Amino acid sequence: LPSSWSWHPGEMDSPPPPPYQDPDPSLVSQPDMDPEAAKDKDNFRNYTSGPLLDRVFATYKLMHTWQTVDFVRRKVGGQLLTQAPKGWPWDHTDLSLLAQHAQFGGFSYKRMTVMEAVDMLDGLVDESDPDVDFPNSFHAFQTAEGIRKAHPDKDWFHLVGLLHDLGKVLALAGEPQWAVVGDTFPVGCRPQASVVFRDCTFQDNPDLQDPLYSTELGMYQPHCGLENVLMSWGHDEYMYRMMKFNKFALPPEAFYIIRFHSFYPWHKFGDYQQLCNEQDLAMLPWVQEFNKFDLYTKSSSLPDVAALRPYYQGLVDKYCPGVLRW
Q1: Minimal CA–CA distance to 206: which of 13, 98, 90, 66?
Q2: CA–CA–CA angle 150, 152, 156 (5° rounding)
Q3: Looking at the whole model, is its pTM more than 0.90?
Q4: pLDDT (tens digit per residue) in 255-308
Q5: Distance CA 139, CA 166 (A)
Q6: How far apart are CA 68 and CA 225, in angstroms?
Q7: Helix (H, G, I), strand (E, B), or coil: what is residue 17?
Q8: pLDDT tens digits, residue range 137-149?
Q9: Which residue, 114, 125, 124, 228, is CA-closest to 164?
Q10: CA-CA distance, 4 to 47, in Å (whole number)?
């Protein structure tokens, strides 16, 4: 808990708990990568100190209070209904009403190209990120260029680096940052040990008072597969669905990386194995490989975006051309 964080009556139902004492499992070592690219690895994802900690904690506190099963269903219901497996536990939900009011299922927010979306991120600083305090558009090019250097023959992978955070345009559409950025986690089951700030941010989440949702499996069947899990709402899920809706011509690995790249409790720390199936385990190495560049290419040394744009425009024209629905 940040030392400067204080509680005022009316801000939440109860004051925050005492400072977290035990080591947070989410703070342990990061995956190995090329030492040339691994600058001060121990300084990344530091959730115990730093000048941005108060801002980061405040974002996660709101996220872990309000990201519930009902909240996520309202966001994606219309799209999710077409994919839900037989026996999906919608318990007492009016499905027609859910489909009608799914807030982002129809992709009617805006029509624009991928590069126009990249430019929009010039105006966004991620309030959940303890590592950087510059616009997200630069991070997109940093990630893409890191992948391009290590995997020169996989141009689709380069493009994924550019695309991965474009779902954060939601924050510029009026969504609060706690519903856009940060690590993701399954709703409808008990948060596991490696979820950031788990022991001091979930106490006001109503799902943890539910006798089903507060169990390890929650509303899911063992090894049901992450494709059948309701994830917390944010830029990952939105961008994945947007790419499917607009029929991006990318391989399955690309969609999987986009959808789960912020699911650190799973791809970094091995939690939620009880929900995974064989497909998840087969895709996991791709998500982990991507994470090396998403995390360790962050630097205050910003890329020459103007010089890079022609190459990435060519990839956009190849895999996801034209004006798209967002």
Answers
A1: 66
A2: 105
A3: no
A4: 999 999 999 999 999 999 999 999 999 999 999 999 999 875 556 667 799 999
A5: 11
A6: 20
A7: coil
A8: 888 999 999 999 9
A9: 114
A10: 14
